[in-house]
Amino acid sequence: MKPQGGVTQLLRAWNEGDASALEKLMPLVLDELRRLAGNYLRRERANHTLQPTALVNEAYLRLVDQKARWQNRAQFFGVAAQLMRRILVDHARVHQAQKRGGSDQQRLSLADVEGAADRPDVDLLALHEALNELAELDPQQARIVELKFFGGLSIEETAEVIGCGHATVERDWKMARAWLRSKLS
Amino acid sequence: MTIQRWQQIKEIFHASLERAPGERRAFLAQVCAGDDALKVEVESLIKAHESEGSFIDSPAYEVAAGWLAGAASDGPAPSLLGERVGRYEILAELGAGGMGEVYLAEDTTLGRKIALKLLPRSFADDAERLRRFRQEARTASALNHPNIVTIHEIGEHDGRRFIATELIEGQTLRQRLSAGPLALSEALDIILQAASAVAAAHEAGIVHRDVKPENVMLRRDGYVKVLDFGLAKLTGPKAGHGSGPEATTAMLGNTSPGVVMGTAHYMSPEQARGLATDARTDVWSLGVVLYEMLAGRAPFEGATTADVTVSILEREPAALRPAAGEFPAELDRIVRKALGKEREERYPSARELLEDLRAVKQDLEFEAKLGRAVEKLAPLKGSVPPRASVTTDGSAIITTDEIRKGQTPSPAPTVVKGRPRPALAYAALALAVLASAGFALYKLLLPDERVAHFQAVNITRLTNHGKATQAAISPDGKYFVYVLSDAGKQSLWLRQTDAVNDTQIVAPAPGGVFGVTFSRDGADLYYVIKANDAGTLYRMPVLGGTPVKVMEKIDCPVSFSPDGKQFAFVRGDYPVRGESGLFVANADGTGVRQLAARKLPDLFFPIFYTGPSWSPDGRLIACAVSNTRSEGRVVAVNVADGGEQVLTRETWPQLARVEWLPDMSGLLINARDQKSTVPQIWLLSYPSGEARKVTNDLSFYRAVSLSADASRLVTVQTTGLVNIWLVPGGDAKGAVKLPAGAQGQAAGEAVQLSIGNVGYLGGNEGISWTPDGRIVFINATGKESDIWIMNADGSDRKQLTASGSGLNHNAVVSPDGRHVVFTSGRTGTRTVWVMNIDGSDPRQLTDGLVEFLPDVSPDGQWVVYSSLDAARLMLRRVHVGGGAPVELKREGVNPVVSPDGRWIAYLYTEASAPAAPPNRIGVIPFEGGEPVKTFEIPSGLGGARTILHWSRDGRSLLYTVITNNVSNIWSQPVDGGRPTQLTDFKEHIITAFDWSRDGRQLAVARGLLIRDAVMISNSK
Q: Distance (Å, rounded) from C-alpha B218 to C-alpha B200?
């Protein structure tokens, strides 16, 4: 299957409710993201900064049929954000498993990652769990967090993906963020 | 918590946020009255909301990307170091970009370093796109343009496509730009070379689509190389099916902050709109690159891709203000024209842009010369006695000398006319005039002074016996000498150019006379006789006398220094095989000194017919050089220090003699360019490297000799005519010329295919019977060579290959009669193709450099063919359905499969000399391996034009031999025994033959070469 046609068709299938399409989609997108990320990081050494959404955009442009772009953009970004979340959480789990046996309960945080030392700290697995909890209460807010935090999208882009107004996203984001902050503090 | 509760909290939270922070507490107390838990929940949210900074404000993406990259680098990148990709061993990583990783690698076969680009896996799947990419990339590479990166191979390894290209040591223009502003001259030099590359591609029908500083490499020696022709088409978003609109990686509608892969800035309006691209798209991108080099920033900027896109589509770039120094206003006009929003406003292709830029550069150089002249004059005002330095027209001459050096031979023209004045005043006037009117003067005066050498020419035939192989004119233009080749012997003849009687000055002798040179004073004649691969230089008085041996081990005609005391020459395979050198020696052959050397794969061009030229100012010796890829260049070697400069802009597949014009405004060269089938005479401008044709016809030219005043040029013109003959039973007496079987002019003078171990000239023709008794043949007309089919009586001729599909050769009909296998140069390199017998559905089977003389196995499944690769002629096999070719045998040519399909016979050379023609026949099993039988072609019979076939019964091997300029077919019994002559033709050279399927009729393509000395002079 051609990669572009494949991704476009899977996005369509997923959009039409075929949940298994997502599982087929993930590895394709992951492959591309992995490659692009590698490129970016290598160039970063030459003083290129990594733009948050550039990777996803790039992957999107590469993987999705040009003609089908307008319809599939939102879904694609949704997929990418979910994917990033999975990667981070999986990675954190592996890390945690490796550390087990040392000081118990030490979890991977973003600050553990090289180059992110100056970032405010967060426990990824706790965040993941809190986000699952949030999704039970308010699926839209959870999705917004996923898109913004994991997918790196702006408010406007998130609104486009979700299909609602900027103001709504802004409000939901504020609350979700406050809730997660208080939950994880 | 319930959903209802959540909704409640949500509403109160949002309502609170609408109030000023100071009022929120009171508001909460009011709305949550009686529900403390609710109040606590919301309060904690508001508190969290008001707290500064949080992990969640910066996306996790960067971190994830780090891990992703970590995962990626755990994978292919580092593990490839030391690994092999095909025949390439990876040595180091050079970089990574959107198109994949690039490595430094060593080609283990050829022992050279190359750059290896591995494309992402995801690009490998779309066969149609890949095919188009390969085709474009190869075509661009095959242009052999010095500014286009040469592609060695496009292949696949472990599911990933790779591209092996020449290694460029240097930096990208992007890196150079980030190091600081470029001087105007530097920027101009870069854009001129880049535009020249793109222009050449445009002329070959290729659009780059992704010209940007990242794709422009600056080599340390000043060469600029444009990368990735065709790649944008492969990696860009796919547009529908086939030929729809295309765009680069950045697209309109990309609203992300930041730029995707950095391409948006160089995107044209039509690309931003997702419309179709053409040459003018590249013109735009070149304009952007030029603007950025001059201004130090891109013309269209923006915080996001979308902003950049809007800027591209709607805004005019800010007026060009150079980052460094002054620049001509003309440049601003050129940039604006290149950046026309509508394609119609732009230059139609890079060629026109290039021409305008060149004009700017010339003007600047002229200005610079004026500047220098002005500097020279300046001290006159005070220190130097005026009279001594500034004479009647002296001041101007300082300037014009500089200008004239390159451009005009006429004596001392005056730029400033006027009566002599007091020196100071005169100098001041000259300065004023020169400074203010520099351009005008340049434009007005120089074209008049400049001699347009051989702009419009008359060609006069000097001989008409068709047997002249070399010719030279005396410096005074009064005599010319030519070599007469007849009955296997060569003799030297002299004639006064205005007389008709020829005088034989050297009697006929075996061996070839390679070039003839008059001494500078015109009194002596120097000529090289080559016999048994060793050349010897002789001297004799022009008006008769005894030849004196001057020197041994010399491989070309000599060229004298201006004072006539020394000469330059080339030695091949010296001091050891595979090396060649440019030498100078005293006129008596003493004091030999080597000036320059080449080692394979580079060499001083083919030795045959080449020759150096000593410049009129005595400083430089120009000579043709090449490598085994037939990338020929003219270089000038500095006599004083051996330093070299390249005089040609493009590379030439064939280059022979070069000859300086006396005013050093250029050289006359005998060369074949990419677009031609036969060498012509060209004028190569010096130092610009522009080349234009002096002759423009279908003849094959060899040798260039100029009179001292450059008014007359003598060369040898070869034309040929080949016809198809039907020979019942192979009896030459019954041969019938088919009325319509012309194989075209000059067909006999085939391109020399090898400079390695097998010298082979044949192989452009082809003739093949179908099972139903029709004949497939080659019809070469002018610049095209096509495959035709006709009935055996010459009727019902039909063209099978499409007009415009370039040079198609070597037609072989498959045993079942359904297909024709042939070779074609339509993709830029000569490769093996197959098509249906009606000409439909042509498919490319191989993708080598020079592949020829294919044959089809009796089961129709396999094609065997000759392949020239890395200076070696080898035999290969490929399946008729495609797939990877298999090497059958190194060092062989003209493989033919036996009728039973078990054996392959081929020609090879057993000789110590390079480029010796085949003199043996080998027979190997069809699957390859060592020869099971070899046959010697009787001494003196094998040659560069020998063609091999199996007899239809498989009992004999048939081959052509030439004796005394007549070809005949000989038969070698496979069981052994002596070969016998099969045909008894009394004239003509055979270029192709084939027996009908029933073995009853022989079809043969044969004809003759007419080689005459001609004189070319300026007309008017």
A: 18
How far apart are the CA of A33 and the nearest CA of chain B, in angstroms? 8
The 3-state DSSP composition of chain A as helix, strand, coil percent (nearest 5) reads: 75, 0, 25
A&B contacts, CB < 8 Å: 197
- H/E stretch holding B143 reads none
Residues pairing with B567 in the sheet = B560, B585
Q: Is residue B260 over pLDDT 60?
A: no
Report phi then psi at B778, rounded to 5.
-105, 135
Q: What pLDDT sits at residue B439?
A: 32
Q: Which residues contact A167 (CB under 8 A, 6 or more apart)?
A: none
For the whole model, what pTM was predicted?
Answer: 0.44
Burial of B169 (0-12, 13-18, 19+ CB in 10 A): exposed
Question: CA of A69, closest CA in chain B: separation in Å?
Answer: 10
List the B843-844 sheet strands across, edge first.
B808-813, B819-824, B831-836, B843-844
Burial class (CB in 10 A: 0-12, 13-18, 19+), B139: buried
Q: In terms of pLDDT, which residue wins out, B298 or B608?
A: B298
Q: Which two tokens stand for residue B155?
A: 């292949």
Confidence (pLDDT) at B869: 64
Q: What is the mean pLDDT of residues B365-378?
A: 51
Tell whether the model's pLDDT for residue B384 goes beyond 50. Answer: no
The answer to whether B257 contacts A181, with C-beta atoms less than 8 Å apart, is no
Q: How far apart are CA B557 and CA B213, in angstroms?
A: 46
Compute the nearest-CA separation of B590 from chain A (Å): 58
A158 touches chain B (CB under 8 A): no
> How many CB atoms within 10 Å of residue A91?
20
The 3-state DSSP class for residue B608 equals coil
Q: What are A88-100's pLDDT values in tens digits?
A: 776 667 656 555 4
Active site residue B210: yes
Q: Are A36 and A53 a contacting pair, CB within 8 Å?
A: no
Q: Using the structure block, give the residue that is written with the tokens 């699952």.
A: A132
% of chain B surpassing 90 pLDDT: 24
Helix then strand then coil, in percent of chain B rounded to 5, is 25, 35, 40
Give the separation between CA B259 and CA B98, rounded to whole angstroms.
12
Is A43's CB within 8 Å of B96's CB?
yes
H or E element in which residue B283 lies: helix B279-295
Most trustworthy range by pLDDT among A143-152, B647-656, B785-794, B973-982: B973-982
DSSP state of B964: T
Tens digit of each residue's pLDDT (9 = 90 or more) over B576-625: 777 889 999 999 999 999 999 988 778 886 555 678 999 999 999 999 98
Q: Give per-residue pLDDT as tens, B487-522.
A: 778 899 998 877 767 888 888 887 778 779 999 998
Collect all residues of chain A within an 8 Å Cβ-Cβ radius of residue B18.
Answer: none
* pLDDT computed for residue B568 by the predictor: 96
By C-alpha distance, the chain A residue nearest B76 is: A35
The complex's ipTM? 0.77
Query: What does B497-558 look like in DSSP terms, one character per residue?
Result: TT----EEEEEEESSEEEEEEE-TTSSEEEEEEEETTEEEEEEEETTS---EEEEES--S--
Kindly state the DSSP code that residue B587 receives in the 8-state scheme.
T
Evaluate if residue B743 carries a pLDDT over 50. Answer: no
**CB-CB contact of B233 with B247 (8 Å):** no
Query: Residues 6 or more apart from B64 whose CB is under 8 A from it?
Result: A37, A84, A87, A88, A91, A150
Paired with B593 in beta bridges are: B584
Cβ atoms B468, B715 nearer than 8 A: no
Quick one: how far is CA B854 from the chain centroid? 25
**Calpha distance A1→A123 (Å, rounded):** 39
Which regions of B149-203 does DSSP assign to beta strands (E)?
151-157, 160-166, 170-172
